[in-house]
Specification:
- By secondary structure, the protein is an alpha/beta fold.
- It folds into two domains: 308 residues, Alkaline Phosphatase, subunit A; 62 residues.
- 35% of the residues lie in helices and 15% in strands.
- The protein is built from ten helices and 13 strands.
- α4 packs parallel to α7 and α5 runs antiparallel to α6.
- 42% of the residues are buried.
Length: 404
């Protein structure tokens, strides 16, 4: 089973997103129309909320909270310093168990370059706004934006080829370097204060994980994919998104990882979309104040992101898995945003899709509406159950969703 969580920013023009009918006999509204071919493998989920993305006494910063809360369901500590605190994200809870069986515990990607220091949104640290995935309440999993770097992380690039003797020699050299780094870091750690010791612990954890990756790579005799390494970051945004989607498919196909997250752009992004006739910035347009022209432009951007997701679904559906089914059959893919109507910075009734068959455990081809204040994290608990990861709670969850 594979799990992926995909984020597109700045909310939606919700009337053009939400189907009017509930159940199997629903029609896709204009924004979701690119997914018509995959309607039978799709659930539109309405009525799920992220209460902890609201201010709750913390004032402005809805874009930072939208990103930080999306996979954690936790309220971010409002700080622009190094004392960040949020919570463990659902993908990392899954990776804790599923990652023992794959080369990479999880894969994190973004079309944005990471900003981990300084303040970004109304007093919130940039780390909140530029990360979806959190290994611990203070440790984000920084996403990679360069497709070539992602490929080399998965398959080693040119270094992944060559004779078994060459690969063994390189592995021995890497181990030697890591042994030296670990010994040196332990000596330094004894002379550090508590805050620096925390950062050093994060560093040592990364080193230990690198050691484990090398050991796994030595044991795994998986064929390299029939694909060329990307040359770098594409010039166009559509090509960049699709290049990273292609790499996620390769990662799932080769069983290099079973857990992935992809933030196409951080919330609050003011990227323009001249290629689809929207030269103004996305964030600027999202505060539409019911202006028909801005709502029309927002709908174009919404549809652009859905078109890219349709491309990803097609790639998964056309790729055979080891059991004869396709990758989409054996996946659970969440696609959505931490904001609904962006003009109000609304965090309830979020725009969400759940794609895939979940290995036969999901019931796709429906529009499902949940009534009342239902946390999005309830969905995540239900997804974890399906991959054999038992969690009593994620963030503000208060139960499981029985009807997915």
């Amino acid at each position: 089973m594979r799990m992926a969580f995909i984020y597109s920013p700045n909310g939606r023009n919700m009337p053009l997103w939400t189907p009017k009918a509930v159940g199997n006999n629903f029609a896709l509204e204009n924004t979701l129309s690119p997914l018509a071919k995959h309607r039978s493998m799709l659930q539109v989920l309405s009525g799920l909320d992220h209460d902890k993305a609201k201010a709750n006494g913390d004032g402005g910063g809805d874009h930072a909270r939208a990103n930080a809360t999306f996979l954690t369901g936790c309220q971010a500590k409002k700080t622009s310093g190094a004392d960040i605190r949020i919570g463990v994200s659902v993908d990392q809870l899954a990776a804790e168990k599923l990652g023992d069986e794959t080369l990479l515990r999880s894969l994190e990607m973004s079309c944005d370059q990471v900003r981990q220091s300084g303040g970004c949104d109304s007093g919130y640290a940039c780390a909140y706004q530029y990360n979806l995935s959190w290994k611990s309440e203070r440790t984000p999993m920084a996403p990679e934006h360069d497709p070539r770097a992602v490929f080399e992380r998965l398959f080693g690039g040119a270094a992944g080829r060559g004779s078994a003797e060459d690969r063994a020699r390189r592995a021995h050299e890497r181990k030697s370097v890591l042994d030296y780094v670990m010994d040196d870091a332990k000596r330094l750690n004894k002379r550090l204060g508590s805050n620096d010791r925390h950062k050093m612990d994060e560093y040592l954890t990364a080193v230990r994980e690198m050691e484990q990756r090398i050991e796994k790579a030595e044991k795994m005799s998986k064929a390299l994919p029939d694909a060329k390494a990307p040359t770098g970051v594409p010039g166009g945004y559509r090509e960049h998104i699709r290049s990273l989607y292609d790499l996620m498919v390769l990662a799932f196909q080769s069983d290099s990882t079973r857990v992935a997250s992809f933030m196409m752009a951080h919330d609050g992004s003011n990227r323009s979309f001249s290629e689809i006739g929207v030269p103004q910035g996305h964030h600027h347009i999202s505060h539409h104040k019911r202006d028909p022209k801005k709502l029309e432009q927002l709908a174009k951007i919404d549809k652009f992101y859905v078109e890219q997701f349709a491309y990803f679904m097609e790639r998964l559906r056309s790729t055979k898995d080891i059991d004869g089914k396709n990758l989409l059959d054996n996946s659970m893919i969440v696609f959505g945003s931490g904001i609904a109507d962006p003009d109000r910075h609304a965090h309830d009734d979020l725009p969400l899709l759940l794609a895939g068959g979940g290995g036969g455990t999901l019931n796709p081809g429906r529009h499902v509406r949940f009534d009342g204040d239902v946390p999005l994290t309830n969905l995540y608990l239900s997804m974890l159950d399906r991959v054999g990861v038992r969690a009593d709670r994620i963030g503000d969850s208060d139960g499981r969703l029985p009807n997915i």
